[in-house]
Structures are given as structure tokens and as C-alpha cells.
TrEMBL record:
Protein's UniProt name: Helix-turn-helix domain-containing protein
Highest taxon listed in the record's lineage: Bacteria
Source taxonomy: Bacteria, Bacillati, Actinomycetota, Actinomycetes, Kitasatosporales
Swiss-Prot/TrEMBL keywords: ATP-binding, Nucleotide-binding, Transcription, Transcription regulation
Record-linked Pfam families: AAA_lid_14, HTH_8
Domain Sigma-54 factor interaction residue range list: 314-491
Source organism of the structure: Streptomyces hokutonensis
Amino acid sequence: MTIVEHSPALAPLRQARERFLTGRPLPDGVPDEVLAAWRRARFFGVRHDLDGPLHDPEPPVASALLEAARPVLERVAPALGGHSALLLTDERLRVVWTAGEVPGGDRCRDLSEREVGHNSAALALRTRCRAEVHGPEHFLDVWQDVSAVSVPLLAPETGQALGTVTVATGLCAGCGPHPGAALAEAAAVAVEAELLARSRTAERVLLDAYTRATDAPGRAVVALDGRNRLISEAAVRLATPQVLAALERASTGQESYDATLPDNAGCTAAITPVRHEGRVLGIVAVLEARAVEVPRPVPRPALALAGGSVPWRHAVARAVELARVPEPLLLTGERGTGKTALARELLGETVPLVADAAESPELGVKYSELADGRPLLLRHAERLAQPDVAALNSLLDEHPDVHLLVTYTPGTPPGPCFQRLLDTLAARSVALPALRERREDVRELLPVLAPRPAPGQPPLSWTLDALRALEEHPWPGNVTELAHVVRALAEHRRVTGPVRRAELPDPVREGPAARRLSPMEHAERAAILAALRRHGGNKARAAAALGIGRATLYRKLRGYQGVS
């Protein structure tokens, strides 16, 4: 590995960063994703010189990730060269394990962009693929002579992002691929393999405990470990979403495994921890119906806010933060991701003017009606007629603080006038992730999407096999498509008990169908993959090398998913 103090290839970018920090105009050629990252760091108030107090993250507790990763990383660490470091972060980008030394490591224990700006760990977690950041691409001064490569760690069975593995070295000659990329990839693969082996052992132990508890006929038993649920037929009526949520909290407790059930639960729970090799893996709860049940309506969480995944929490938190100021706000995302529902939730009790370009491209909205401060919710902005786009541009030029919420679904390339509108709104925009990018939210969305059961009827529940099929489906229609499936099952099924995989629609039950590539597509796919390998997975550089736009590259990569 060649280490250089100042790589000639990065000299223009180093100069551009100095101009950015001092507020001077930037030269041409600064990569879009790097400039956007610098701007985010400035928006978050990150100090490039680390001057002032940094947020002190909560000390990480023992976790399944750390337990699985520590022995793997300790075996890998001796392969590091001099002036190198190996780091492990959790899903919140807190550094939970390190080997070696990296500049600023004593102060940078939280690698989120809100704390330290652009870095490879944050980029890898956001993109869910290997990421490299070199020298002046970083925002912090202390990392100007550091090159780093990070690989995301994904849960083997659910695909949930668990953290990252990072190799950091002195500044490498050239911009990639990083010489530590192979080491980071190998460490990530080994950690994920260890996680898979441990999860299968845990599932077998939980299943054995559940089987023993259900030996008595008619016994209402629920077994949980924070990822899986086993519910006996007798427990279906008693195991409401509120009861299951309380038991889930108990299954992940660190010391106490007592569950405080809701007052309207209608049952009690006797809980037994499930242990293996001195460690608690989950719980088995035996439910007993109470003598008197007084059903009370329980409010369900708003659909627009349902979901606990990192991408969704980040998007909602960003939208809530921006909505505190009554100024223009742009919500973007694929169809069905919940843009309009989130916009209405952000407005609270305020009743907006609503204009839907999908119903009529010529909206006919009198913009003078906004003078009294009443917000305008503009849906499907991509279908606006040209006169309305021009009118909106004029309105924002004259009144940049107008209270306007816009939903936009990217598709065909926008024209110059509409692109100007998007550029104006870009500073206050939030991109909502597709449902396939937050599969772990599917289980939380199901009880919110399901209709309320009739009096005396149990809520809709699901077998583990059905849940896995729902989580693995790509959902091109996102939450809207999932809602149609759930409501159709709730209204038309004629059997009792949890929904089985066999009851799901064919595309969901059978998984995404693979199609065969034509010879031309094979050649195109091979060229794209070769360019990505040459540029260390950096999609912007690969697109430039191929002579296509980034949007085109992303579209082609999505088109090749699930093909053979």
C-alpha cells in the first residue's frame, strides 16, 4: 500500500474544500455527492476543526452484534498494516469496538453525519453497500490525510442494517479501490456468517422451549425473542397487538423479564426466560384469560409515523424538524411511500388547501388565497401543467416563505422550468425510503393497516412463514400496495387463526420472479459491474466512466435486481 501525504489526484478537491469552508465560489468538477455531504455537515452545524464540545454518545451496551463480531475482528485485526485502524459501529453509528489508531479517534466516537460530517461508515449505512471516502472528501480537518472504506453489516435473515465494519488508513494514492477493501469485505462476511449461525441456534432453542410449553392441549403460549414470534392456536384470541408489544419489551429486557400488560389486555402472563449457554435468548409466556374482560378501544398509531427502521426514523425526524417552520417543504419518494399521509400528519389540526395535479394538471388555485397563512398541500407535482409550474416559480421568487407542502414522485426527467422548481425546494426536502429499503417495518405496519376486528373477533395475525414472505416481497407499490393486500385478506378470508403463506397473493407467496437477460442486457450488466468494481463501488464515478447519468445507472441497477 502506497501512502502519500498529499495525493495529486485529490489536490483539486482539497482546494475546493478550502474554498467551501471560507465561503468562496467553488470550481467546476466537485462531485455532486461530496458537495451535498459538505452542505449537510454545515446544515447540521458540524465544526470542521472539532472546536467545541462534541456530543458524547451513550455508552453501547452488550449486543448480539458485538458478541458475534468481537472474536471475528480480533482474528482479523493482526492483518492490519501500520497506521491503520479497524472499527465496528452499531446501527446508530456509535463506535463499539476498535483496533489500531486513527486520527481523531479519541473524540469521534459517534460517526453519524450530524456529529462528524461525511465519512465512509455513514455513507455505507445509508447506501447499504461498500463505501469509500478519501482525504478532502471528509468534512473534518483531522481526517484530511485519512482514507477509509466501510462495509455495512446486514442481518442475514431480515436484511436489517446492524452496523458497519471500517478500515481506516493513511491517505492512499489514487481514489480507489481502497487497499483495505478486501479486508473490510472479508470481516463483514465473517461477522454476518457468525450472526447467522447464532440466530439459527437461538431459533432452535426457542422452538424447543415453545414445544415443551404447548405439550398440554389448549394451552395459550407465546414465545418471542425480539425477532420471531411463535403463537399457539389457543393464544391467538388473547395475544392482541398490545399484549404482544408488552411481551416483546419483556423479551429484550436486560435484567427483569416481567411484562406489564395493558389494563384492557383481558389476560395475565406467566413468563419464563429461555436460556442457552448462560444467555437469555427470549421468553415463553403462558397466557390466562381474566375472569372479566372489559374491552376498550385502543388508539392505533398514525400510519404516517409507523415504523422503527433507521431510514424511516431519519426521514420522519427530518420532516418534523423542517415542518416546525411554516415554509416550503418538498416530500419525494416512490409512489405509495406515504408522502401525502406524512404531509397531513405534519400539518396536525390545520386544514390545508389541497390541490392534486393527478386529478387535474391545471390546478386553478388562486395563490392569493395563501396570503392569510393557510397552507397549500400540492400532490403529484410531477404532473403539473407548465403554466402552474411557472406560477409556482414566480410565487416562490416573490414569497420564499410561503407555507407550501409539495409531494413529488421522480420519474421522467423534468423540464427546465420544473427543474428550477425542484432546485428551489431542494434545500428543504425529505426523501422517503421505499418499503423494500425498510423491510423491518413491515411487521409494525401490519396491525396499523389491518381493519379493526368485529366485536368478539381476534385481530389479524400472521405465521412466521407469511411474515417472511411479506418482508421479502419488493413491494413496487410500497405501503399502499401492502395496505391493499392486508385489507383484502381481512375482508375476504373465511378461516380462523394466523394468516398462512398459502393465503397470500401469488406474487407475494412465490417471491419476486426472475427473468432472463438478453445477450445485450448481459453485456450491459457486465460493463456496469466491471465499472463499479474498478471504482470501488462508487456509483457516481462508475456512471461518469460509462458516460451515463447517475439516475440512469440507479435505474439500470434496479432493473437488474432479481434477474438471472
